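The protein record filed here:
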Amino acid sequence: MKIEPYFEQQGSGSPIVFIHGSYATTSTWKKMIGHLAESNHCISIKLPGHCGTPDPVDFAEPSIETELCIVGEVVRQLTHEPIHLVGHSFGGVVALAQALKGDINLHQMTLFEPVAIWVLDRSNGGEMASNVQAFLAKHHLDMLNESPRVCGHVIDFWGGENTFNALPDFIQESMTSLVKNNIRHWNIISTTTNTHNDLNGCNVPTRLVYGDESNPVSGAICTHLSKHLPNSNKYIIEGASHFLVTSHADDCLNILSNQSIC
């Protein structure tokens, strides 16, 4: 596999691998990498269909193995050291799946608001699981009706009302071209087959981070994950919402750099 389209790298030292979310790019990590690259080899993954990479070919039967293949190959070809794996939103889902797969050497992991909604289903997530299902039902209906700016509904679900409208026009326009990829991401996280036993068996030291102004679903996911990942700590950033990795980059950087995970 040719890995060239699927990553950016900066700096040298201990490797940190970053995975951005849906409707996002590697610029998600720009502020943090600006500091970390002074002493770390920072590798930013470009998800398929994002950042100018080719679209995935599995739209008919979406599989997270498409992403895991890319991450695994990039890591294996760029470093032979244990890595710190970092993911945001859907990127956090990919990072967690990579840790559960266990085919690359991780010495720690940081998940910023991973949208692993499957955890709620496995944990009898109650109101939070119902909130997600209600949103998805409306979202699918909006897509069938070709509602304008359907991507904005996703952004506002996770980030809060009017989050999408507050974005610059050029960012809003760029997101509209990623709707089919986002639908694929929802399909992946809705059909994940991992279980609590898989989480219980994952011993990678893990930070779980969310904002106190995020959709309560985000906090519920992190709380459920913290109960089942044996070497995990949970962090809450005050005043932050779903896009905390850019809006509260310094707080995220402090947490990510904290060596006392467990």
Summary: The first strand starts at residue 7 and ends at 10. The longest helix spans residues 126-144.
